Amino acid sequence: MQICKPVDNAFIFRGFIPYNSANPNLYHGGLDIDGNDSRIPYSVFCSKSGIIAYICTDIKSTFGLWLAVRLPDNYYSIYAHLNEIYSELYVNNKIDSGSLIGIMGSTGLSTGRHLHYEERPLLSRCIARNPTDVAALYL
Hints:
Elements: E1 10-14, E2 31-35, E3 43-45, E4 50-56, E5 65-70, E6 76-85, E7 94-95, E8 100-104, E9 115-120, H1 132-135
Antiparallel strand pairs: 1-2, 2-9, 3-8, 4-5, 4-7, 5-6, 6-8, 6-9
């Protein structure tokens, strides 16, 4: 499977923190990625090919504008806090690694512009897996 960076010329400023029942508030189920230059908009790309499973256009939802891609292993990759979702994307359409998803933003419960990327087995609230293969692209 081909994997690409969801955001070029960027860095991970908050990584995956595994769930710990002793301190569940520390859990962070994904990667927070920001661009190197705050003055320019950053495009967000699909990191792994799959089928678009969900598109949320409610900017007041927890993730704001976000999109989910069902991966071949039936996990979902989530692209959250987008400022814009590319208008040519539709639920149930195939999307390839490297395809444009939208523009990085700060919608939903976000404290500043970034992409929140995570992989989880369900679209509902659940424990995500550590996307180490995507994180490795930023080393």
